[in-house]
Amino acid sequence: MIKKNGNREEFNRDKLLRGLVRSAEKRPVSMEKLTEVVGKVENKVRGLGENEVSSQVIGEFVMTELKDLDEIAYIRFASVYRQFKDVGAFMDELKGIMDTHHE
Question: Rounded distance, CA 22 to CA 79, Å?
């Protein structure tokens, strides 16, 4: 995996799961569901057939899975992953969720 700063490290299921657990803290999301998300993300990464995958691609895979699982966990993960520059950017993300919720 290629991190944002250019460093390379192995894909780490446990590290990803810990991040998901933090995002879903005090939410009605079981450990089983979070482990499923990690498995789906890992399968998508392996399915790319690449030796190296950017952390941005992995983050997008995670967010796709979280959006359907729990919107609050999704926003929490997005706030760390996307490093919102200001409240406006954060509100845009919330608006996007609300718009898809009402479709």
Answer: 12
The pair of structure tokens assigned to 87 is: 């409240």
Residue 1 half-sphere exposure, CB side, CA atoms within 13 Å? 18
Q: Which residues pair with 8 in a beta bridge?
A: 2
Tokens, residue 92: 């845009």
Q: Report the pLDDT value the prediction gives residue 34, as an integer from 0 to 100.
A: 97
> Domain ranges in the chain?
13-100
Token pair in block for residue 61: 């895979």
CA–CA–CA angle 1, 59, 86 (5° rounding): 125
Measured distance CA(72)–CA(50) in Å, rounded:
31
Residue-wise pLDDT tens digits, 15-62: 999 999 999 999 999 999 999 999 999 999 989 988 888 888 898 899
Which tokens sit at 103? 């479709």
Longest dimension (CA), the chain: 40
Q: Each residue of 76-99: pLDDT tens digit?
A: 888 776 666 667 776 777 777 777
